[in-house]
Amino acid sequence: MTYITSWEEFAKAAERLYLADPTKARFSMKYRHCDGKLTVKLTDNHVCLMYRTEHAQDVKKLERFTSHLMRHMSSKEGR
Q1: Pairing between strand 26-32 and 37-43?
Q2: pTM, two decimal places
Q3: Which of 7, 35, 40, 67 has the greatest count of CB atoms below 10 A from its CB?
Q4: Are 52 and 39 in contact (CB under 8 A)?
Q5: What is the distance of C-alpha 41 from the center of its chain?
Q6: Cα 19 to the chain's mean position, in Å?
Q7: Per-residue three-class SS string for the chain
């Protein structure tokens, strides 16, 4: 498991991973208050994509990305 350093790179790779097989993809987030770090992970048991940030501005990017994934999940193509 390696961390992707660029948000844009993570978002594109995560979307491709999800669209490859939506039934196997899992998305999780973890926030550690003592470190002030947010970790985002998307995996399908073969590939694991992770992104870690300490910046508050990345939370808005994460919110947009999550809503984008939810649209995929609720659409007929995402099933």
Answers
A1: antiparallel
A2: 0.84
A3: 40
A4: yes
A5: 5
A6: 13
A7: CEECCCHHHHHHHHHHHHHHCCCCCEEEEEEECCCCEEEEEEECCCCEEEEEECCCHHHHHHHHHHHHHHHHHHCCCCC
Other Cβ atoms less than 10 A from the Cβ of 17: the count is 20
> 78, 69 in Cβ contact below 8 A?
no
Q: Tell me the C-alpha distance between 69 and 77, whole Å.
A: 12
- Positive or negative torsion for Cα 31, 72, 22, 6: negative
The pLDDT tens digits for 13-64 are: 999 999 999 999 999 999 999 999 999 999 999 999 999 999 989 889 999 9
Residues 6+ apart with CB under 8 A from 11: 61, 65
**CA of 48: how far to CAs of 28, 33, 55, 70, 76, in Å?**
11, 24, 22, 19, 25
